[in-house]
Amino acid sequence: MIELIWLIPLIPLLGFVVNGLGRNYLPKKLIAIIGCGAVLTSFIISIALFSEVYQDRLAGGDGQIFKNYFDWFTVGNLNVSFSFLIDPLSSIMLLIVTGIGFLIHLYSVSYMSHDDGFGKFFAYLNLFIFFMLLLVLGSNYLIMFIGWEGVGLCSYLLIGFWYKNGSFASAAKKAFVMNRIGDLGFLLAVFFILDTFGSLEFSTVFSQATGMTSGDSTLLLITILLFIGASGKSAQIPLFTWLPDAMAGPTPVSALIHAATMVTAGIYMIARSNILFTLSPITMQLIAVIGIATALVAAFIAITQNDIKKVLAYSTVSQLGYMFLGLGVGAFTGAFFHVITHAFFKALLFLGAGSVIHAMSNEQDMRNMGGLKKALPITYVTMLIGTIAIAGIPPLSGFFSKDEILAHAFFANPVLWGLGLLAAFFTAFYMFRLLYLTFFGKFRGTEAQQSHLHESPWQMTVPLIILAILAIGGGLLNVPEALHGNHWLASFLQPVFADSQAIATPFHLSHETEYILMAVSALAAIAMAIFAYRKYVSNNEIPKADGEETGALYNLSYKKLYIDELYDKVIVQPLNAASRFLYKVVDKSLIDGLVNGIGSFFVFSGKGIRQLQSGYVTFYIFMMVLGVIAIMLYGLLYS
Amino acid sequence: MGTIVEQIQGIPLNHYLIFCSVIFAIGVIGVLIRRNVIIIMMSIELMLNSVNLLLAAFSAYHGDASGQVFVFFIMALAAAEVAVGLAIVIMVYRNTKSIDIDSLNKLRW
Amino acid sequence: MDNLFILLLIPVLSACILAFVKNSQTAKWIALVLSLIQVVATVPFLCNFVPDASMQFESTFTWIASLNIHFHLGLDGISLPLILLTNGLVPLIVLTTFGKTFKGNFYALVSFMQAGLVLVFTALDAFTFYVGWEIALIPIYFICALWGEGDRICVNLKFFIYTFFGSLLMLIGIIYLYHQTPNGDFEWASFKALQLPGGIQRYIFWGFFIAFAIKIPIFPFHTWQPDTYTNAPAAGTMLLAGIMLKMGIYGLFRWLLPIAPIGTQIYGAVALVLCVIGIVYASIIAFQQNDAKRLIAYSSIAHVGLISAGVFSIHIEGMQGAMIQMVNHGISVIGLFFIIDIIQQRTNSRNLSELGGLAYRMPILAVFFLLIVMGAIGLPLTNGFIGEFLLLKGIFSTNVWYAVFGGLTLIFGAVYMLRLYQNTMLGTLHAEHIQVKDVQGYEVLVLGIVSVFILYLGIFPNALLKLSEASVIQLIQQIK
Asked: Where are the membrane-spanning stretches (chain C) (predicted)?
């Protein structure tokens, strides 16, 4: 299997090339088979690889496989090789990317079947998988960066998939540019790493870093820059506004890229570089604070959104905030655990939402939905499972991962835990609100939509069912000790985080405390579910139409805290004004004016002097005589 | 042979100098203030001849014949110059019906 | 076959032949074939080149004996990539004109310019170099002035006089150095061996720097460039942006740094700051440009600003990055200008506010355009990334803050390039463009070749980096 690692990213790339070139010539079926087959093949190889890593772990090894392919570029002492690293962390990530990727490909076969850009869509998806796999597999920061930027490109392409709509294209651009801001941070971090450690290989960097003292200022700089990179990709404050706009893309894209895989790249990267972060406590605190702030802000906004995908988008931002909170308090396993479970239930929710949108003839506003329970039974059940999972109600997967993060947060700082709990309140509320508004009550759409309602075909429901099963059982991966679990994931990932664990204060909470924390968060979620039920089902409340009077707080949430407007006023407009100013005033008038001024000086002085050329011979002779006299006088006086 | 030379030398050299300078100045002023091309050309001749006279005088005082050779040379040149100049004047007259020098001011910026 | 004169002879002869061809159809084919012969003639130099720091394929003959001027040519790792770039791009540029009706005189000028460029890139005698430097300017002046658009005469006069002014400063420097050499010659090697005192090197530095800075162009000597690029015919713009401005950067490598190492140490930082200002300044201006050509012109100022900053970083990464990015920029910019030209031919407009949605009618073009745009903004696995990464790393090693500001090009580049892409390709198609045809034939060929190079150099940059490494290392050692 080790010999086949290179095939994992290469097969989706081939799929991209074939589908990309043949998008107008190949039949849709073949395109679908190529697109799905490529990812499935990668998935199968990934499983085999995973089992190999797992065997190695069982045998007591650290489960690392390193493969070097070729020198990418060499300049002086700087040598970047194209090489892959498989370890427990990346082997799990591989499974998520290819596994969930495959399910979403399968789902798209039906979802996109009526679209003109069917071939293009699959080509892009395969390209995305390729870059995502590079990101995961890279054995140094630069190979990771290839994937890092590549997935940004695919995200751009897929958000702007329906490019004829100008605002979609703008959303795509926004996503790309905001990601680029983070990428600059990443790149600068790479430079610092290169300067400090002389290499970009993970193994070299981490082993050298282990010997450094905690709080080292270079490490602080590196980690903050890396975090800026992560916050761009994983949509954290202040760079999160692109993700809700990214919902302009087709729904499977939102599920794959903007929920399950790409946006978790930041967490993956930080988990990968955990030793650097553990050694800079200030960055860790910053990450925790930003994480929890993002979780709260996004959850607060999600409460009032009416677009079903927007709610899920803000929910994703909020959950990513959770993961960063986990990273910030040193719960690397917990954060990664949440990446896994979140991938399951959020992909499920997005695909479910896609199924709803599909049935509703592209309607996304929940105010026009309602009562879809009967028409879409499978979608309803699976989305219910997803909602329970994300809300953190035991024993579904979300409960375990969220609980682990919250427990660590409590251990680090009870305030963080309190805020995390508040975010959990919000989460449960807006998710159940979504569920009730969509599936309960009476149908509020048009008649044409009603007559068209149908459950989705098997290509769409099968992924939903599989993901639902995963969302239910995903928690078993890492059942905490307090619940007589064996912390399987933690022990599997142990070699990745070993160095950090040796440095950090060991996590310890008494079982009683853990029980109380679990109970509180579970009860909170259930309470909010009931509250939402009373509000939206028993009282039949429907969110207000646009333009109706609303409370200030509601309005603040509905208008997304005016952050987009703020960015527009503070950054975009000044830059555009600066652009016009620099062009018209500085460039055209000042600098070019100076250049032209020098030219004009000669033109004008020429105009002045040429007056002497009067054309009158007598005048010339007179001047000549004067000249002769002057010369003679000079000769007389100074000889 | 010596008599002419002696007669010339009988007059002090300064007189020649002053005399020639005066004639030359008259020529210059004539060129400057008159607008009739013919008169300007005559003034130029006057200037040339004043120089010729001076050359002859110096030649006699120094006993060096080359100065007088030079005079013949200049006279030949002046004749050629007048021939060309008068030809130009005639052409100018044909074109402009005047021999006013100030009508020839086309050659300017 | 590996006498460098042949590389001069072929374009000069081509120019002579082409000048007499009246029929445009015949002329373009002859021009293409002749420029391909030049490519073939270049191959032996690449094959026989030994990637070390030495000067190779040297050939010399006495030109003006009384002044000790020699026609001395040679290749090393710094000039070879540029020779490859020049001789590789000219056939492509000829190919881009296949849809037009230029007569032989146009192609003659292109060939003549190629000869001048080859002379610049191979000259090892300052006098010869200067001759090449000026020779290259004359044909491009006529190309732009005869086939340009808009206010072309005035714009070109400015371009010509501006660059000529710079050249004169350099000429003064060359003549001064000539008098300082022990044997009284113009040899590059003897200039390099001079080791003048620091006080004099300052003047030498500025004389050469301003000449090169105008050509490159570096802020604030850039104002001729957007106007000239905008008004020149597409092929002229490609020659200017693709190859000609590399003369300036090459000049930094070949002449400025070796001759005035102390001057560089004193004023290199100033030059570096100017370059970094130029990057940010031009990028910001590019945001709001509506003329696609002018937008790319400003982006080009930002890109070459980064390249020059890499040169002045005097770090192996930065200078190697500059070497590879010169080639990359040449390739990308030709693609970009060609695409704008295609769009302009089809729609009669290159005003971004009048375009949009062309991807719907031109899907193939949209794919090429996207790839080239990604190359221009430095996406990994395209050629632009390697260049930008190395350049920024070099600048970073000199000064962290310069790298931060220079790195803004990563963000700003994405902003204006994607705006260019979005406003032409995406959004709603205008009614009058509904009949627009997609690229075909020679257009696909050109864009395909450009794309292949963008990807190839992005994945295997070592092929190019190896050529110049030894020479660059030697240059750095000499300066330090």
From this structure: 29-50, 81-99, 106-124, 130-147, 159-178, 203-222, 234-253, 265-288, 295-316, 322-343, 364-381, 401-421, 442-459
Rounded distance between C-alpha atoms, residue A219 and residue A342, angstroms? 30
User: Is residue B107 domain-resident?
Assistant: no
- Tokens 């206010």: give the residue: C151
Residue B19, in any domain of the structure: yes
Angle between helices A397-412 and A414-439 (to 10 degrees): 160
Q: What CATH number has the domain bearing residue B46?
A: 1.10.287.3510
CB contact under 8 A, B106 and A615: yes
Where does A504-616 have alpha helices with state H?
511-533, 552-558, 563-567, 573-581, 592-609
User: What are the φ and ψ backbone dihedral angles of A67, each rounded to 5 degrees?
Assistant: -130, 125
Which residues partner with A78 through β-bridges?
A: A75
pLDDT band for position C2 (cuts 50, 70, 90): low
ipTM for this model: 0.92
Specify burial of residue B68 (Cβ count, 10 A radius: 0-12, 13-18, 19+). middle
- Closest partner residue to C428 (CB to CB) among A75, A164, A578 is A164
Interatomic CA distance for residues B27 and B37, integer angstroms: 13
CA distance A236 to A243: 10
Residue in chain B lying closest to A619 (CA): B32
Predicted pLDDT of residue A499: 85
Contact A160/C at CB under 8 A? yes
- With vertex at residue A70, the alpha carbon angle to CA A64 and CA A74, rounded to the nearest 5 degrees, is 110
Cβ contact (<8 Å) for A187 and C284? no
Closest CA to C11 of C123, C86, C85: C86
Task: Enumerate the residues of chain C whose CB falls inside 8 A of the CB of residue A166.
Answer: 356, 426-428
Domain-wise residue ranges, chain C: 266-480
pTM attached to this predicted model:
0.89
Contact A164 C429 (CB under 8 A): yes
- pLDDT attached to residue A228: 93
Are A247 and A309 in contact by the 8 Å Cβ rule? The answer is yes
Ranges of each domain in chain A: 1-139, 140-558, 565-638
